[in-house]
Request: fold
Amino acid sequence: MTRRAFATLPILGIPTAAWAYVVEPGWLEFTEHTCPVPHLERPVDVLHLSDLHASHDVPTSLIERAIDMAVEAKPDLICITGDFVTVATGFDCRWYVSVLSKLARSRPTYAVLGNHDGGSWSRDGGGFHGTGEVASMVESSGIQVLADRSVKADARGTPVRLVGANDIWSLRVDAERAFGEVRRDEPVVLLSHNPDSKERFANKPWHVMLSGHTHGGQVVVPLTGASPAPVSDRRYVAGLKPWGERWIHVSRGVGSIKGVRFNCRPEVTRLRLVPARLGT
Ligand SMILES: [Fe+2]
Reply:
């Protein structure tokens, strides 16, 4: 979500603006979806968080509530799909590490970084130049950052292959490296911040992709669904959707840019992966 996009927002009436700036950005929703995944031995609950956006625009209490909600859901795995910060300032690193560490202490937690977390897009916007600062902060909390690599995660005894990709706006993406250890007979979850990245991995063996980046549109026009979501494929702005034989879940995220949301509540999602033969 670009800051410039919000300069073009239509002028809102005062009650609507109060709702959009005061009420809805903090009105966190717990959402649930079920997704069939081949080669899975038994159901696995993946808790999906995205776009925390620690900054002056996002209250620390909102991030703390989202993380408490994630821990209380008692998932098997936790995945975070980037944009931990908005720019290089506006958050307390020690506070952030202590809050994020609650996740890693509760369950195995994995993450990829987003366009705000460093790299070419962030540098050009006055943020972190490289991804080292945010990656170090996140890993200090016990969360594994997957930068074009995969791990065989242990979901309470059930193996799940997690592949984490670099953000397409920020860094060179090496799909060969990311999928180098992936077998075609294992359940594969791809973490990639921007849902527009799906074509980069079209010939790779993944079953469900977790993304963020859009914030669900953040300001969504009722009835039409129009929004300033910064993606080219408007089919994948929010929710769980099929893409051919595969699935893509795009989180509306927790934080926001400029602290505004309308018709698009922040969310924490439990994605229940089920063996494909039991899929809905
Ligand atoms: Fe974001």
Remarks:
- The mean pLDDT is 94.
- The chain has one domain: 29-278.
- The first helix runs from residue 3 to 7.
